[in-house]
Specification:
The protein is α/β, with parallel strands linked by helices. Strands 4-3-5-10-6-9 form a 6-stranded mixed β-sheet, sandwiched between helices. A two-stranded antiparallel ribbon has the order 1-2. Strands 7-8 form a two-stranded parallel ribbon. Helix 1 packs across helix 3 and helix 2 packs across helix 3.
Length: 314
């Protein structure tokens, strides 16, 4: 009889490509991974991994069993979903992620609501950029992720995932208060052709979007500073080091000396939740999606109220 937990470890090794990667993904030690793989080899009577440079690789038998392991684990997840659905209660554990401004703008309300409505559901969350989050959902390391794409650049979403739209998050250009365009009601991106930009780090989806968008306007971006945290970007702007794109979700009050001006041709992020389609029947997934949708409605209501009352801190 094959041990399911050892099959999970083999599956993690196949997905992550290394013992350390499998250990990180499963939140166990590397020695635990090695020990369980050795036991699995004894169970099947064949060598499943072989040394490869400083790491390991799967043997032919290892790849064959890993393929079966992935299907077995998927079937187990379906069975768990069906049992959970039959009970009709959100119980057990649900693992969520969101990119930083969504974690700040949506998670406090959503997770508090989820805990109150479903006290027997354990919720774990972390901040994660969209590309990495989607990979972890596909691998089964996460149950649900809040991700984004832009109105003019879509994030590739692989098959096998279900999605739910949460909100459209408008973005402004943040600039020092003494910038020549700071007193304008709206601006065009072309007007920043000679400005220095503060951007997200190279390789992140939003950095690629910014470069793509500016070049589509005939602007070769002068990106002189990069920071993953939006508040850090805004503080760099406050110091007169450039301008940046400032989405409104999770933004809060701007630093002193910074002004955010809307763009005439509206820029916005489409914020949505993704999860594995084979987990769609799990009440815990549905409960998490509903809590996120309710939190998004709170954000939209606050945005409408701010528009009625006029600018306050932007």
């Amino acid at each position: 009889m094959l041990n399911l937990e050892r099959l999970r470890i083999l599956d993690a090794l196949a997905r992550h490509g290394s013992v350390s990667g499998a250990a990180d993904g499963l939140h166990v030690t590397t020695s635990a991974v090695s020990q369980q793989l050795a036991k699995l080899e004894r169970e099947v009577g064949q060598q499943l991994i072989a040394k490869h440079g400083r790491g390991v690789r799967l043997t032919d038998a290892g790849r064959l069993l890993a393929d079966h392991a992935a299907r077995i684990i998927s079937q187990v997840e379906l069975a768990q979903s069906d049992i959970e659905a039959q009970r009709g209660q959100a119980v057990g554990e649900v693992r969520l992620s969101a990119f930083p401004t969504a974690a700040r703008g949506l998670f406090p309300v959503a997770l508090a609501s989820l805990r109150k409505a479903h006290p027997d559901l354990r919720v774990r969350s972390l901040e994660l950029e969209p590309d990495g989050a989607i990979r972890q959902v596909l691998r089964g390391d996460l149950d649900l992720a809040v991700v984004l794409d832009w109105n003019n650049k879509r994030l590739p979403v692989p098959g096998g995932l279900a999605t739910a739209s949460l909100l459209e998050d408008a973005a402004d250009v943040a600039m020092p208060a003494d910038h020549p365009l700071a007193d304008r009601r709206n601006v065009d991106l072309e007007e920043f052709a000679h400005d220095s930009w503060v951007s997200w780090p190279t390789g992140e989806f939003c950095h690629e979007w910014l470069v793509f968008t500016l070049r589509s306007k005939g602007i070769e971006p002068r990106i002189e500073h990069m920071a993953g945290e939006q508040h850090t970007q805004l503080e760099l702007v406050a110091s007169g080091l450039g301008v940046c794109v400032a989405p409104r979700l999770g933004r809060g009050r701007l630093p002193e000396g910074v002004v955010a001006v809307p763009v005439r041709q509206k820029m916005f992020r489409h914020v949505y939740a993704v999860w594995r389609a084979d987990a769609d029947r799990r009440p815990s997934i549905r409960a998490a999606v509903e809590a996120l949708e309710e939190a998004a409605q709170v954000v939209r209501s606050a945005e409408l109220a701010a528009q009625v009352d006029g600018p306050s801190g932007e």
